[in-house]
Amino acid sequence: MNIIFLIILRKKSTFIKHLRVDCISRGPVKPSSSALYQNINCKLLQASSFNQSSSVLAEAFYHSTMKALILVGGFGTRLRPLTLSFPKPLVDFANKPMILYQIEALKATGVTEVVLAISYQPEVMLNFLKDFESKLGIKITCSQETEPLGTAGPLALARDILADKSGEPFFVLNSDVISEYPLKEMIAFHKSHGGEASMLVTKVDEPSKYGVVVTEESTGKVERYVEKPKIYVGNKINAGIYLLNPSVLDRIELKPTSIEKEIFPKIVSENQLYAMVLPGYWMDIGQPKDYITGLRLYLDSLRMKSPSKLASGAHIIGNVLIDESAEISDGCLIGPDVAIGPGCVIESGVRLSQCTIMRGVCIKEHACISSSIIGWHSTVGRWARIENMTILGEDVHVCDEIYSNGGVVLPHKEIKASILKPEIIM
Questions:
Q1: Any residues with CB less than 8 A from the CB of 168 and at least 6 apart, and which?
Q2: Lesser CB count within 10 Å: N end or C end of the chain?
Q3: Is the residue at 293 inside a domain?
């Protein structure tokens, strides 16, 4: 493996060991860039070896000072009650916060700085990411919105970071999206067509819920972009991952703006938007049902790429991810499509399938859980049965022999009676 180290000097000073998380809070006035980079004197970037057959991609990496913006958004209401305890990007998915999958993929691609466009609980994000910034070796900046700015306005807010002197394109990602993140291939695709913008698309069976992209098959040039069409126009949908030239920022004003409805149609009209079909799996995990489906897709991918990370044994069925600190007693049957987080205790005779058990949870003897999410530090009693997309918030106690048929339970509650039909327990 060839290892490349790029050192980018900002000033004549000694190397600093740790990068810093900055929170930039701006109002509706266009911000100044005068102080944005004063905190970083030097960066150390490690990039993996490159495929020699992809000269375009190699060139992109050797000269990379790439940036990325992740659209974090607001309250995460579709994932409540989990988002009552943590901002949505910090909700665990397959035993680590959702947003880390994207940041790690960007780091592996050669991105040197990630901007988080956020309008809800920025201080929680900052405290969390301070620990991970130095571990990941990438600068992380929070760009705080004083009002919701949609999917394009945050780009204008972070313009002074994204449009630096390098002229490199920058990534934009929707924080709800999980995939195999073929970002290196996307760079090569973007360089090859020479257009102003690239997007990833994926094929789905029900495209009417999404933005549908109609492309020229041979080149990938986008001919039409239709947001949530009422009639069938195609099955390729916007996957929520973009690579944009800095010139796109000139099209965006600092106000609530939709990149899908207001910016992309203009770029399409000038034949400057191209789409690359996403290989592998894709899922928007912003709501519980899709979260569970996304876990299955992720574990399927993990089986193909890193099977050693999955659990094995007579008590395991299919794909199961178990943190090494979790305690699993005898007589359990676990799987398929289960994630068990750090510090969990699974007592004897428990049956788990198609579910997530988050950090610090205790599942008592002979409980049965399927198609559900059990929030942090909750307890499920003996012989309890939890199913049908039940979501337990943080620190919920389910008493012995309780049945939950699709209950959504807010944090710090005790469930003493069965939930016979889907309802919210407040």
A1: 63, 64, 65, 66, 67, 246
A2: N
A3: no
Domain match, 266 and 315 both: no
Task: Judge if 251 and 144 occupy the same domain.
Answer: yes
> The tokens of 268 are what?
């399409």
For 260-295, write each residue's pLDDT tens digit: 888 888 998 889 999 999 888 998 888 888 899 999
Identify the CATH number of the domain in which residue 354 sits. Answer: 2.160.10.10
**Closest to 172 in 3D by CA, of 108, 251, 111:** 111
Cβ contacts of residue 269 below 8 Å, gap of 6+?
none
pTM of the model: 0.79
Q: How far is CA 237 from CA 35, 68, 190, 243, in A?
A: 39, 22, 18, 16
Tell me which H or E stretch contains 242. Answer: strand 236-244
- Among 223, 252, 284, residue at a domain's last position: 284
What are the backbone dihedrals phi and psi of residue 217, each rounded to the nearest 5 degrees, phi first?
-60, -40
Distance CA 426, CA 418 (A): 14
> How far is C-alpha 353 from the geometric centre of its chain's CA atoms?
23
Q: What is the pLDDT of residues 68-87, one digit of tens each?
A: 999 987 666 777 888 787 77
- Residues 319, 213 within the same domain: no
**Cβ atoms of residues 406 and 389 within 8 Å:** yes
For tokens 């309008």, what's the residue?
119
Specify the CATH number for the domain of residue 93.
3.90.550.10
Spell 58-73 as b/e; 16+ CB within 10 A means b.
bebbeebbbbbbbbbb
Are the C-beta atoms of residues 295 and 93 closer than 8 Å to each other?
Answer: yes
Domain residues for the domain of 365 are 299-425
